[in-house]
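FORM 7B - TANDEM STRUCTURE REPORT

SECTION 1: FIRST PROTEIN
SEQUENCE AND TOKENS:
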Amino acid sequence: MFFPLLAGKTKNFLSLILCLVMIFALVGCSSSAELDVAGSDPLQSDLKAETNQKNPELKLAEASPIVPKETQQQQVVIYRLTRDGRYLLPITRTVKIEGNPVEAALKELVEWEDEWSKPLLPEKIKLGKVEIQREIAVIDLVGDFSKLNIGADQEAKIVEGLTRTATQFPYARQALILLNGKAA
């Protein structure tokens, strides 16, 4: 053992103290704030499901990002197409945020014009509703998609540009793109 000269009781006591210190060191390395991931509380999920079944009108509030009440300005990165349409171009812009920052960034992406880049979305496609649901930016694109002839490469660039613009915020880790309110 580690303590050959110590008596039996003292040796057991020191071994117990050493074990306790190691346990506290291992357990104490992570705080409860780090372990509490939004939406991962099984009790909250069970309570929400039970409450919704018993009384569908009463719903527990979803965890949502803190949204500023007053208008603020914030720098965001939007991803637009280069003039030739071959690459995505990251552009830093300062936007006014009135509510949902993801929506403000996506509106800037769609509406802003300059001479170095071209719009990400075709003219017939508009930005619809933008929501954050459990760290997913739900982006609804509205328009007649059946008449578009842009090719798979351009479609991939649209998806990438929308996703990169939306997921730069810590509360939007993924993006879900809907076409006229339906999953593509």
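SECTION 2: SECOND PROTEIN
SEQUENCE AND TOKENS:
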Amino acid sequence: MPRVEPRVLEGERGDELAVYSPAAMDGYVDRPEPIDERIERADGTRWIRTDVAGAVPNQP
């Protein structure tokens, strides 16, 4: 997907896929809690955890 960056973050259950996009949601309307536990800031970037285990393959 254009302008979507994947990254693997360490999680409690192992490595977890996270994504960044300038178009990523800020949260749910009137329900901040569910997304708050999914967001992690790393290296000045706001990453959204996907709860998907895995790794990002090397890209050419």
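SECTION 3: OBSERVATIONS ON SECOND PROTEIN
The chain is about 5% helix and 45% strand.
The chain has one domain: 5-53.

SECTION 4: SIGNATURE
Preparer initials: ____
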